[in-house]
Amino acid sequence: xxxxxxxxxxxxxxxxxxxxxxxxxxxxxxxxxxxxxxxxxxxxxxxxxxxxxxxxxxxxxxxxxxxxxxxxxxxxxxxxxxxxxxxxxxxxxxxxxxxxxxxxxxxxxxxxxxxxxxxxxxxxxxxxxxxxxxxxxxxxxxxxxxxxxxxxxxxxxxxxxxxxxxxxxxxxxxxxxxxxxxxxxxxxxxxxxxxxxxxxxxxxxxxxxxxxxxxxxxxxxxxxxxxxxxxxxxxxxxxxxxxxxxxxxxxxxxxxxxxxxxxxxxxxxxxxxxxxxxxxxxxxxxxxxxxxxxxxxxxxxxxxxxxxxxxxxxxxxxxxxxxxxxxxxxxxxxxxxxxxxxxxxxxxxxxxxxxxxxx
Length: 359
Prior knowledge:
- By secondary structure, this protein is an alpha/beta fold.
- The protein has two domains: 2-189, NAD(P)-binding Rossmann-like Domain (Rossmann fold, 3-Layer(aba) Sandwich), CATH 3.40.50; 194-355, N-(1-d-carboxylethyl)-l-norvaline Dehydrogenase, domain 2, CATH 1.10.1040.
- The chain has 17 helices and twelve strands.
- It is globular and about 50 Å long.
- It starts with a strand and ends with a helix.
């Protein structure tokens, strides 16, 4: 299968190496040509996992997005939510009927990217899918290497429009057999783990994050009282899913810490033992704030407000983050208000999610 990987982060390099090693024809696009140069010249990504380190050959590494996505069966956009509109704009001239765009995770980016591509004049029948996490816990190693700590064992995935679910998931499953269907793109967006895990971890560890050069929020930063706040926040997410009629499994975040039923199986200990997440986190600029709070948590709060479901912990964390950043994150670009969706009633929302027509 021809797969395009769009982006230059940890998850993108992991996907490129992993999927190429499985025998797929993989094209890797990265906007920054100089940063991509090492892979472009050698055609190799050094992949490290439990099987050791080896070089994996990919078909193409390019900074020209059309060359990457044109004729690809599956397009994996493993990038932060704040890059999705720009990427949709760049891809719009090159997408064609039958392609599947997969966002792991999406933060409702499946809807956003579909609308942007359509706004740019492309009427092709493209399915957009999203899931609750990256398929990998991974960290890049230099300019052309990536280390995969573990791979996802379950990927709950929704499709926009939902009418394309069967076809889209059949394509994605050829790359990621662990995908599991959920009702629609909003259901999948409310599986996103980042806005549940990271806001309590960074905000309740703000002191050590500013006071020490490096700090592991997943190791000494994950204390019982932090976990209690995280579980309360996750309880609000699950209550919102249930109020919207979405069924179990809801992938409660407690399973990530206590069982092998979560998306990565029993992975928390592997994450901590790797040491890869002992790092410097700038609270004003880091992805955990700019994606998981400013996009993900703000989205969650806006959906709860639209559905008239109480979410006091989510609202409180968002307010604290807004004070930290000196800006009102509740008015961010990924809220239902900003997307023009807060005026829809529940029936209209169901129709939109199923058929994909603009509101």
